[in-house]
Every structure is written in C-alpha cells, then in structure tokens.
Write a structure and sequence with these properties.
By secondary structure, the protein is an alpha+beta fold. Helix content is about 40%, strand content about 20%. The protein has 12 helices and 15 strands. The chain has helices at about 5-10, 10-20, 25-60, 70-100, 135-140, 145-150, 160-180, 195-200, 225-230, 290-305, 350-355, 385-390, and strands at about 115-120, 185, 190-195, 220, 235-240, 245-255, 275-285, 310-315, 325-335, 340-350, 360, 370, 370-380, 400, 415. The strands form 4 sheets. Strands 1-8-9-10-13-7-6-2 form an 8-stranded mixed β-sheet. A hairpin with a 5-residue loop joins strand 11 and strand 12. Helix 3 packs antiparallel against helix 4. It is elongated and about 110 Å long. It starts with a helix and ends with a strand.
C-alpha cells in the first residue's frame, strides 16, 4: 500500500486501514503529497525563470550592458529556490516516514473474523487429570525454570537431559523433512542482523519495541529467521527460470514480548527466547497463493506425523501482521493447559517485502517485476514441545515419544 496506491485508491486505502485497525491518516498523507507536488511545480517554474535570467545576464555582459538589477533578481530567485528545496526535503522526509507505517494490502479472501478452515486429529482422552507442562516436565527433570530464572530472569526456559535431546530431535526432524522431502535449501544464518534487514521484512519501524537492539553496534537480534532468509536476495534480480526458491533455517529467536505481561506468564508458552524452524519462499506473483497452500500442506504434514491435533485459522484482517496480505495460523491442542497454542503462522506478503528490499525477477521477455515472498513456521518451539509432552503423558507421569522422533532419541520410546 504505497503512495501511488493511496493516491489512486483513497477510499479503498481507508477501508483497508480501518479493517487492520491501523491509525494512519490517508487524508494527511494526501494533503502532504499535494503540497509536495505543488512545491515541485513552483520550484520547476522558478528554475526555468532563473535559467532565463542567467542567460539574459550573460547576454547583457557580452554586449557590455548594465546587468546589476537583473543579477540581484537572479540571486534572490536562487535563494528562493534553495528555500523551497529545503522545505521540499522536510516534506518528503515526513511523507517517507508516514508511508513506512502503511501496511500491506488485504487479500480478497480475508474477512473481518478469524475463520477455522481445517481441523485434524482427535483430542486425547485421559482417565486421569492431565498435568500442565510446568508440573509434568519438572517432575521428569526435563525442564528447569528455576535455573533459567537464575541465569536470565523471568520468561526463559532451560532444557535439561532428555528434554534438551527431545527439543533437538524436534528441530532435526523438521529440518530433515523440509530438506529431504519438501525441497527446501537449508541455511544457517547469523542471528544478529543489520537494521535494513528488518526494514525489508516489515519489522521496522512498526515493531521496534518488540525486538532486542544492541546498544553499541548496529544490530538487532532476530525475532525469526524470516529476517535473514528474506534478505538473502535483497537488491537482487532473480531470473524467472530460477523461481520458486525454497529456504529453511533453524535459529533461536528473540522477542521482548513488550506489552504482553500478565498473559501466559506460567511455563513456556510466551517466552523471550525460543527455537524455530522457518520456511521462506520466493515465487512468481501468479503462483504465490498456490505456493502458500503447498507451504501450509508441508507444515500440516509435520503436525500429522507428530500426531498432534490441530486447527487451521485464516486470520481476520485486524489480526494479521503488518506485512501480510493473508495469514493462516496453525494451533496445536495441548491437553495440560487445556487450550489451543499457536505453533505456526503462514503469511503471504506478496510484493511488500520485495518492494522494500528491491527484490525483483527478470521475465524471459526481459521485463522486471517484483517477486512475491511468503514465510511460515515449520515449526515453532517450544509450544510444540508443550503440546507433545502434555498430549502424550501417561498416568504414571511418563511421556510417550512419537515414533517419528525415536530415531533422533537413540531409539528411546518413553521418558519417565
């Protein structure tokens, strides 16, 4: 939703901003833009007049005629042009700062309410009261919240023994499936990225308060591997024949969770550092929604192999991320906490990130066009860890390990 779009579709822009609950004034932007364009016309007219004056002065001097008054007028005109250029620079800077807060378009399929579009699996039935993960895991000595608090304060977790091994098994299982079966290229990126990387993905300036910034160096800790994966092709031009491109990466992720205190404070549902396997695709515009459905299918396959009941929601316009045109959330059922936990978010950002990062494709005809970019969590831990141990707990306090993870656990079938 750039300046050109707002200029050509002001009513549609207002509607989309209202549906997204974004406090950006279309009228203010249009007013500033009108003032900018008016000043540009004045500046261009004055430049033309100034050039004509300069030519006249040169002609008078050549003919050894008096030119003092005209020289003074030209100087005054030159100063006026400089004043207008200074004013224009301020207006353009204001306009640029305002347009940075314009979100993406809304895809036509997105409504104003969250909509469950698919479900899978049966919620487990127990002949005992299932424990929440904070009690279950500490009894099994696979999580240690006290040690984590001693090291880093609240909202951190420490995996211990078989818990650390299970977390690693989940990560390796997801990576292996995406690489060997789904065709993604694995990347192991830096987790400290430059500021421009976050502007490309849409994290800056909108969500600056949610991230950890280095005090002395120009870096932020990544909130997701989407940031480095999208920026792999910043300022690149990709041949059409090379699309689509599929990337996956495991990284730790860091989020301040500013403003979320009082929500999900117990256990590890909402913490400052967590592990995640991320998926990113670069596609032709005409294929992007087909590729989004493929990504969703890839992620759902993992949920099914882990035998975790889940629901897929198409998010309401007001719930989508700033950069997304359409988003699915995948929520896992977790028996101990007795609720749905978001474990994946799949977003098609269309050309939003490509425009910010200048990521284009060259058609066979030679024409240049922005690619479409999408991302998805495949999967996010430790909420998957939570759902897995809570759903697979036994009456004696042990936890059954899903079959697909046993090769990563040295053949172990149970923790207990």
């Amino acid at each position: 939703m750039d300046l050109k779009f707002i200029r050509n579709n002001p009513d549609l822009a207002r509607e989309m901003l209202t549906r997204r609950n974004e406090a950006v004034s279309v009228d203010e932007i249009l007013s500033i833009d009108e003032k900018r364009r008016s000043l540009i016309q004045i500046k261009d007219q004055m430049r033309m007049e100034h050039r004509q004056m300069s030519e006249k002065v040169a002609e008078l001097k050549k003919n050894k005629q008096e030119s003092g008054n005209l020289i003074n007028e030209a100087k005054e005109m030159g100063q006026k042009i400089k004043d207008i250029e200074t004013q224009l620079a301020e207006i353009e800077n204001d306009l640029e700062n305002r347009t940075k807060y314009l979100p993406n378009y809304i895809h036509e399929s997105v409504t104003n309410e969250d909509t469950v579009v698919a479900t899978w699996g049966e919620k487990p039935n127990f002949n005992f009261t299932p424990l929440a993960h904070w009690d279950l895991a500490e009894a099994l000595q696979i999580l240690d919240f006290k040690a984590a608090s001693k090291l880093s304060g609240s909202r951190f977790v420490l995996f211990r023994g078989l818990g650390a091994q299970l977390e690693r098994a989940l990560i390796n299982f997801c990576l292996d499936l995406h690489i060997k079966k789904h065709g993604y290229i694995e990347i192991s990126p830096p987790i400290l990225n430059l500021e421009e990387c976050f502007y490309t993905t849409g994290s800056l300036p909108k969500s600056s308060e949610e991230m950890y910034k280095c005090a002395e160096d120009p870096y932020y800790l990544i909130p997701t591997a989407e940031v480095p994966l999208v920026n792999l092709h910043r300022n690149d031009c990709i041949n059409e024949d090379n699309l689509p491109l599929y990337y996956t990466a495991y990284t730790p992720c860091f989020r301040r969770e500013a403003g979320s205190y009082g929500k999900d404070v117990r256990g590890m549902i909402r913490i400052h550092q967590f592990d995640k396997v991320e998926l990113v695709k670069f596609t032709r515009p005409e294929n992007s929604y087909e590729e989004m459905e493929k990504m969703r299918k890839d992620i759902e396959e993992i949920m099914q192999l882990l035998n975790i009941p889940y629901q897929v929601k198409r998010l309401a316009a007001s719930e989508m991320a700033f950069q997304s045109a359409k988003t699915y959330d995948i929520d896992a059922w977790s028996a101990g906490v007795g609720g749905w936990l978001e474990v994946s978010s799949i977003s098609n950002c269309e050309s939003f990130q490509a425009k910010r990062g200048n990521i284009r494709m060259r058609r066979k005809s030679g024409e240049l066009e922005y690619v479409h970019i999408m991302n998805g969590s495949g999967l996010a831990f430790p909420r998957i860890f939570v759902a897995l141990i809570e759903n697979n707990q036994q009456k004696d306090g042990s936890v059954i390990i899903p079959e697909v993870l046993r090769p990563y656990m040295g053949g172990l079938s149970k923790i207990g």
